[in-house]
Design goal:
The protein is built from 1 helix and 11 strands. It is mostly beta strands and about 120 residues long. The strands form 2 sheets. Strands 2, 4, 5, 6, 9, 10 and 11 form a 7-stranded mixed sheet that branches. The chain has a 4-stranded antiparallel sheet with strand order 1-3-8-7.
């Protein structure tokens, strides 16, 4: 069974930092681009960042320069380091695995809540 399990969310003050982690099934992790997406109430889900099997990353414009995505292939884990957090970063953050194979599809974690508030 394919599983993606996120952790690290919580309540943080503006300007603070959090580090999210996602552990995925190895058979999927090793062949997938891994990504972080988020969804705030009343808004569509948006891509925050993703990273290829070879470690090439990209970021959404709203988080560029503040967030860093990384992956540890030995641990089947992808991370999202979030610095200089703003209230508008408040959302449920989801881990995604995309093997880019139409016969497999992609996979999602259950989400972890990040709340940035004074």
């Amino acid at each position: 069974q394919v599983q993606l399990v996120e952790s690290g969310g919580g309540l943080v003050q503006p300007g603070g930092s959090l580090r999210l982690s996602c552990v995925a099934s190895g058979s999927i992790f090793r062949l997938s681009t891994m990504g972080w997406y988020r969804q705030a109430p009343g808004k569509q889900r948006e891509r925050v960042a993703d990273i290829t099997r070879d470690g090439v990353s990209r970021y959404g414009a709203s988080v560029e320069g503040r967030f860093t995505i990384s992956r540890d292939n030995a641990k089947n884990t992808v991370y999202l380091q979030m610095n200089s957090l703003k209230p508008e970063d408040t959302a449920v953050y989801y881990c995604n695995a995309d093997p880019r194979n139409i016969l497999i599809g992609n996979f999602w974690g259950q989400g972890t809540q990040v709340t940035v508030s004074s």
